[in-house]
Amino acid sequence: MCGIVAYVGERTAYPILIKGLQRLEYRGYDSAGIALINNETKVYKCKGKVRDLENHSKGQDINGSIGMGHTRWATHGEPSDINAHPHVSMNGKFTVIHNGIIENYAHLKKELINRNYTFQSETDTEVLANFIESIYLDKKVDAEMAVRLALTKVIGAYGLVISCSDEKEKIIAARKGSPLVIGVGDNEYFLASDATPIVEYTDKVIYMNDEDVAIITRQSLDLKNIQNDQLTPIIQKVELNIEEIDKGDFEHFMLKEIYEQPNSISDTFRGRISIDKTNLFLGGIADVMPKIVSARRIIIIACGTSWHAGLVGEYLFEEYARIPVEVEYASEFRYRNPVINEDDVLIAISQSGETADTLAAIKMAKESGATILGICNVAGSSIPRETDAGVYTHAGIEIGVASTKAFTSQVTVLTMMALLLGKKRNTISDEMYYRLIDGLTEIPKKINDILSTEEDIKEIAKTYQNATNALYLGRGNLFPVALEGALKLKEISYIHAEGYPAAEMKHGPIALIDENMPVFVIATKDKSYEKIVSNIQEVKAREGKVIAIVTKGDEVIKKLADHVIEVPDTHEALAPLLTIVPLQVISYHIAVMRGCNVDQPRNLAKSVTVE
Ligand code: F6R
């Protein structure tokens, strides 16, 4: 959730840290801070954004070629200057930035208070800084040993960067559950929670594993585990372009990412569909294909938008591969005692590949012997490393906190998987297999058509910008689109929105409908078209305002609805890939009209690495 960046080298650290924090601000943005390690360690931190930190440090001593920075998403303690990171231990020996949660911090704090330690902040991180210091002073060990000893006693998750005032030439990094990437340059090293702050300096990275500890100086990188076993760093090439992490001509990353969907979907299927469009190849799961083909059940686990993609996957797998599917919130799945069998296939879906609950659910499921697959966007992230096999979505980096292109790429992967599985299990006809593959390749062009109507969608947004509630209705595989549309609206515009299966409306939500209630109905032509037309009539009979997403040329709904947004015709199995796009666009414009910060909505963070 929080963003971490650190630098050890010959250059001035300050601009690298500030730029890095700006790149990472999408991970957390309630406060920010830096520490510059010189003859003395200077710490500047404040509540607010990175630009507030820049103002705060103006005119101050910002020299130093070793430093660390942090942008926070609060867990323990409200956003404030004091609770911002870095935290310095009571005797000034250790400076710490931290992403994650130290679960036994209260116990450790009590022990430290008994030993006359005092605390400035309410954070678990300051407890850790003092805990490391207490070991360092008591046991008279070096900083690295103090850190390792402390971490053996810590319960929880961490991505940590630590500096010791007696060993100013080095920084120590440690990871468990919260990602850390080391960038390797010439006589310089970078550290960050993801590669975005690193790519403009080097493409050589090392992804730290859980319980790794790195001791970094300008000339050396020493990688160990907490038990002090020596490890060999594996240097990889990072696949990320600097242009991808800029907004370009767009006002917000979210809009840029909505517009990237024709390309991101093409990138997702590129190389996986044969040129004659008669076959699919998913190299990442080829080795485990026999197990998937004979699976008795598929369990999909995910959170948020990725969970909605999973629900679309359920329709696809059941329809075309005839395998029973369960779709579970990872956070629920991991805390009950689910029955998982060896012949189950578990598919974890995650844009970031770092979501704590999804990761923990995978670890739990591993014990069952089930085959575990990942559908992830961020290469080298934790989930792909924990799974038996998987398929990358190749959507490119997603920076807007509200997920858009990741969703359509996830649905693209699930579509390809379901079709391939259907083909191998003989549960889909050749005709349908070819038709859907062909239909998938047409989707990018059709999304461009939808995006060309952005101005019309913006006009509709104007009408509903002051709504306080909204309802989203869909049936079948368009019900998850209703859920996703509602999530997009509520997370960036703060309008309360609910997604419902259209037929369920009569079992409660219909009571909410009055002349002020916008009801978004996803009503493209499919086998339940007649039924959804009836649902629209039911809403209109109660004076609700209907905004219908319809198939181009639909004259029936045009007469009933207050507004229609047309999408090109496609096979109904592929309709989620088109119908979600106008809902993303309308949420975006409503949020902008309401003056909301769409790329950094309040209380949210991009990558939820705490439980
Ligand atoms: C909503 C959104 C979140 C994420 C969820 C899971 O727009 O982005 O709901 O979908 O936090 O994240 P990943 O996919 O990274 O596991």
Task: Compile the SSE list and pairings.
Elements lengths: L2 E6 L4 H12 L6 E7 L3 E7 L2 H8 L8 E7 L14 E2 L5 E9 L2 H10 L9 H16 L3 H11 L2 E9 L2 E10 L4 E4 L4 E4 L11 E4 L4 E5 L4 E5 L10 E2 L15 H7 L1 H9 L19 H5 L3 E6 L1 H18 L3 E5 H4 L10 E7 L5 H11 L4 E6 L5 H5 L2 E4 L12 H21 L4 H22 L2 H11 L4 E6 L4 H15 L2 E6 L16 E5 L6 H13 L3 E7 L3 H6 L2 E5 L7 H19 L18
The structure holds fructose -6-phosphate.
Fold and architecture overview:
The protein is an alpha/beta fold and 611 residues long. The protein folds into 3 domains: 3-243, Glutamine Phosphoribosylpyrophosphate, subunit 1, domain 1; 247-447, 3-Layer(aba) Sandwich (Rossmann fold); 453-605, 3-Layer(aba) Sandwich (Rossmann fold). The chain has 19 helices and 24 strands. An 8-stranded antiparallel beta sheet has the order 3-2-4-1-10-9-11-14, covered by helices on one side. Strands 5-6-7-8-12-13 form a 6-stranded antiparallel beta sheet, with helices on one face. Helix 9 (304-321) links the parallel strand 15 and strand 16 (325-329). The longest helix has 22 residues, at 430-451. It is globular. The chain starts with a strand and ends in an 18-residue tail after the last helix. The mean pLDDT is 94.
